[in-house]
Design brief:
By secondary structure, the chain is α/β, with parallel strands linked by helices. The chain is built from six helices and five strands. The two termini are 23 Å apart.
Length: 200
């Protein structure tokens, strides 16, 4: 089985983030061939087009981390029915300068936890619109909107409820299979590649 490096974003900067707890649980349940590296977003300045001529080290490191990943997993809360500002800022950094979109063709999963019943559904909908524009293929099914229960998730990522554990394991299995499918069809030599015929 081919191994894949997955870069993951935690959309909250909080030291007590429930989505960081969820990310630990997902990594525990993921297939063995997926290897996870967090892509940090805390130290990024606010994006401005003024940076495009000379990207700062934080922006270059972010883009290198995205480009060095086989797939991207976004684990994020929902703020005011939308994408948290720090995460959207990171996406803007990763997609610029124009013509150097680091997210293009990266198989992407979106999942999030909330104390409310909608479990980040609106954030995920907004994120899908952004990623569609960035040409990042997305795992569309199964959807995963997690209502966070602190009696179910321990701080180190253990899940005490069998049903929740099985659902999230299934999600990660599907994500792993999706990553492989996308990488198979976006290999060099496919339609849309520059000089595709010479790469076959």
């Amino acid at each position: 089985m081919t191994s894949h490096t997955i870069g993951y974003f935690v959309g909250s900067l909080s030291s007590t983030s429930i989505n960081r707890t969820l990310s630990r649980a997902l990594i525990r349940l993921a297939p063995e061939n997926l290897h996870f590296t967090e892509i940090p977003i805390r130290d990024l300045p606010l994006y401005s087009q003024d940076f495009d001529a000379d990207y700062p080290p934080e922006g270059r490191a972010l883009k290198a981390a995205i480009e060095g990943s086989d797939g991207i997993l976004i684990v994020s809360p929902e703020y005011n029915r939308s994408i948290p500002g720090a995460l959207k800022n990171a996406i803007d950094w990763g997609s610029r300068p124009w013509g150097t979109n680091s997210f293009a063709r990266k198989p992407t999963g979106i999942i999030g936890a909330s104390v409310g019943n909608i479990g980040t559904a609106v954030m995920q909908s907004n994120m899908r619109s952004v990623l569609s524009f960035l040409d990042a293929p997305q795992l569309n099914s199964p959807e995963a909107y997690i209502t966070f229960d602190p009696t179910v998730f321990t701080g180190d990522g253990e899940i005490t409820d069998a049903g929740t554990r099985d659902f999230l394991r299934h999600y990660m299995d599907e994500y792993g299979a999706f990553v492989q499918r996308v990488l198979d069809v976006t290999a060099p030599g496919h339609i849309g590649d520059e000089h595709a015929a010479s790469k076959k």
